[in-house]
């Protein structure tokens, strides 16, 4: 703020600057301006300073306005309903590190609910309340997993804010074009300009955005500059074709098989092999078929495997990596890649019209089963083939934890992802029913949220059994945490009976009953909160 | 009151929390899970049982219709006030999801409510009767007051001597003298029963380490302290209003004996400042009919929230009485006739120039005033190099924000709320700049607090 200058009618005691100088040096060294003998010099100085201080304060005037910021772009989305806005403020206030660590007690973990809240709010198309933007940006800065949803919800004003605050610059980086919306496929000129002049990240974002809407346009755009792109850029761009991959992409990918870069070639081959009708897939089918066959001369038909003896140039051109990782035999390494890239649809034909289930059930000679089944699993995932996935998963209640595919939990969760949501949930429910929760965590991760009824009930039943067995709830904290986020809020009523503290049984761990009651209380509270969250945001 | 008290918003409930940890803990209890037998009455009481870690649930009951602000009772062992259970229950009630149904209070809640109402009634009748001579013997009271005035006079004279010594030797020496000198002098002022002088002296001690330009600030504050000493020593010759201001600045509190003003009061802002001993809560109210702005002060011992809590943006009908002193804005809350409820009242706003003038004029009545409450209309938060200012949307003048306001995270709430468009901002305008406390976006939006309670 400006203060009136002393020149506007100089005070009797002299200018303010003089007073300050005398005060600094002391009246023993300097005489105060306007000092009359007979008065104590320091008192005269203080008198004059008091008058001048008040003159200065009373004369305070506004400063000159700096250049006002450009107004933020309008957010056309409707505002949040008031209850939802308050809920958001509450979720955002629950920052990690601001409270007690250790045991979680019965209170829900609000920060864990924020992602779900954001997803719902984005689905409903609401605008963020402006005053919540700083907290939203802070939350997005701390948690990269939250960023896409948080920034989408925060909208254009958040990017406007981010330009004013260094700490939020990440938002500008995360949004290509510094916040300007990406052009749609129809805006040919803007697309061309951004594609020609944009930064790498902007171009990747542009390509992915167009690919999502018009796959062919994206491919054509990529083709225009393909030859001049750097190898690592070609690899990233090629990767964007993964979404919406279709037969029309084949010629382009086929050309990329002769690329200078080995990584580009490998990726092109991988993409082609995910197109069961492609020429590459047919070549791979022919190769794989020549190494895997059924021996009908034995008592029961048996699969026999004759692994390739060399990785020829043709195989290499089609993406087979010749050098095996340490500890793996070259021949089985090559075979695995061939089977993985061969279209699954070719096998029933080759095996006398057998279904995938029947093929998977066939014995395999000479210990090749694990290798072969693992390759089929990778093929089923790559080609998103539910029939083969089902066959390889086998029955969820099979007695040994390993199904007929002898696959790991990680592979199973990938296979499950190729099935429809309902079937997936049912399979995992069956698995939990037989094998309990200890191995279910990874499988639950691929199930759709909220969990389907049978799956939710299977989880709750299994938790209840674990409680009766007398173990501590934190052995299941992972599943508990998932349940809080994924269980259908409508299940809360069914859980009420579990929230009381049970009588301690003989074999139970000390105090476990109380901890379980607490864990279930938290689960119920969280479910209620999620139900409230959803209803505050209104019907979809 | 016969009407159901209007439900508060969660923000308003959370504004009652004594600290961040309670706010967080309370939020988590604001869901149906641990609660049973929760209910509320038409008279503005809310109760419920909260399951904790023990076998017996905690009994929580809150009286929000009390004329002196919400009252709480909880059987939990927490020393926080209100405790997380009370906050959680209020949130649950504010959530309006039907968990807190209206109904008759259970016995344990009813007993407490009844007891409170009775005590309040007795206090009111008793207060009316004994108001004339609170301490019994008026002659003894007069002698006590005289003795205290003598002590303060001695203190003020001693302080004058110390200020004179300081300026004789020069302010440059103050930097070397360090904080101890001022701490000792402040202790002398406490002995002299002049807490107002003691506080100012203690603040002098912090100036030499406050960054560039400190000699100017030190000279200003020394001069104003000298002015206050002189005012006290010659108080008999001052006009009544100014004499009362001097008395209150020195630390003689006086009592809020101004005529009661009944009005519909909008809660403009509520914020706390704390030192190791005391938490001070300031609540600014704006009277819709009188157009007056008054300040309520409430204190809490270290670690405890002050008793009075009024949610920003709500309005209620009540009487307030001013403290003595010319231009005195401090008042005491008297009887409350309605509970705080949302209201579309907004204080009329000024331009930045008018706001600066308003502060200058206020100095006439109280030269020791650091800032004055004003509402700025149509200002745009504007970056000015590394600093921020509130610029008039029309015209080219602006008030810079105070350094402390610029370093608070709430600055960004204000910038976000505005988005480059004009906003209405209530705050304190003074010689150091403007401190925003509450803001309203264009249109019919709610008041958004720009200061935190803890």
Automatic annotation (TrEMBL), chain A:
Task: Please name the InterPro entries in this protein's record.
Answer: DUF5691
Compositionally biased tracts (Low complexity): 60-69
Q: Where is this region: Disordered?
A: 57-82
- A family per Pfam: DUF5691
Please state what the protein is called. Answer: HEAT repeat domain-containing protein
Automatic annotation (TrEMBL), chain B:
* Xref: InterPro entries: Znf_SWIM
- Chain residue ranges for the region called Disordered: 24-43, 117-147
| Pfam families membership | SWIM
Superkingdom of source = Bacteria
Q: Does the keyword GTP-binding apply?
A: no
Give UniProt keywords alphabetically. Answer: Metal-binding, Zinc, Zinc-finger
Q: Which residues form the SWIM-type domain?
A: 58-94
Designated name of the protein: SWIM-type domain-containing protein
| Species assigned in the record | Streptomyces dengpaensis
